[in-house]
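input
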Amino acid sequence: MDTAAEIISDTQAPEVSTWRENVSVITRCIAGSILFLAAAAKTHELIYPLQVGAKDSPLYQSALILFEIIWACWLFSGFSSKIARIFSICGFSFFAAFAATRWLSGDASCGCFGRQEIPPWLTLCFDLILVFGFAISWPELLRAKQIFVIRFGVVVAGLTLVFGGIFLIVTDEPTLFGPGLARMDSGALVVTDPNEWVGHEFPLINYINLNNDLRDGRWDVIFFRHDCPYCRRKVPQLLKNLKSSYNPSSKRYAFIEVPPLVDHDLFDQIPDEAVKASVGSLDADIDWTVPVPLDIAIDNEIVLDVQVGSR
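output
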């Protein structure tokens, strides 16, 4: 005859393990899918390297793509599930810390999905959810649930290969037509590496509505975007700081907005006497990809210096 303790154990343990197993199934499927998508996005970027100012070598990018694919396969396979659970908690915790750093720095994208701009705060939320999911999940699954996870992983991998391949075939292929500048098949313009402009004529001058003013003398041209958190903090402060240093006989300052153009209050709180600076925009009829903030120093249309990001 079974004892009371054995009866309680037989009736309660499966209920406890079942919900933790379900959490494990959901968490592993989501994490593996995200890793596959991240690897696919990085592969696209590796084939069409238009990330502005990219410092990662193709070898490093290839290694990172392979790492994410292996990690995803590991999660789907169920092999050494306890170690995979601990590794995933540490891995996504690191990703969360990285996304938080990018968010606090005011970056528009986390950089985790190649050229696709994903807000760092959104990536941070997903990473924290996955860390929590792995922390409360039960690492070892019943055979039926493990088979489901494996099949789900195979489907995700297959769909990623199929749709990823189709996307690469129909993708908007860039054509370089000048130093640090590329044109897409759709007509969109992409600033690939503005550092290549140093010593050459400023290639964007004909696309700015202040082009006639910028052709003469020394200018500090600052590109910004209305939805860039770093720009919204730094541009007003920069305008105020220019009050004491402004000299009509020296270089002048132009703040150029990158489309899409919308109504914003970026300059509303700046007193008119703060600085005599010009405000303009790039051609709104063109789809632009420009790193912001971007600071270009020019003298009679020749680029002297380039600063990407923080000043």
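quick obs: The first helix runs from residue 4 to 47.
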